[in-house]
Amino acid sequence: MTPKTIPTADRPNFPDGYSAPDGPSEILPWSYIQERMAQARNYWIATATPQGKPAATPVWGVWLDEILYFDGSPQTRRGRNIAANPQVAVHLESGDQALMLEGEAHILPGAPDKALAKRVAAAYRAKYAADGYAPTAKQWDQGGLHIFEPRKVVAWTNFLKDPTRFKIR
What we know:
With 169 residues, this protein is of the alpha+beta class. Helices cover 20% and strands 31% of the residues. It has one domain (22-167): Electron Transport, Fmn-binding Protein, Chain A (Pnp Oxidase, Chain A), CATH 2.30.110.10. The relative contact order is 0.23.
């Protein structure tokens, strides 16, 4: 599901005093987001319970076609939270080179499309096989594959120089 156009980039809204005196001087390219998401090892998934209690979980995942795929039982706290409230935030591990995404996550109800399952499994194997995780395309035949589609991304490599917000879809 590659977007037809590159997401719109602008500046995030920060309160007065949260930027350099002359303001930020650069906008990050969308390719920076793509590269960081594809190369990340761990993704922090932030969900909320139906009562609004926050929960954050690190997961392994793969970034394909503007979507983060990650897996896990629907019975986990994360899975139950996503089923009740699909609004999710994803954050990579660095606070210095921050990358924060907001959007919706869903657990696919059954087996994904075979071609997609093959691509996701191959990407997982390429990334995590050395760590002992090498799923096949049948891994998610009974469900358990989550998809996260971002709607907004905020990132920077230097908070004073290049904070950038992207709006997607």
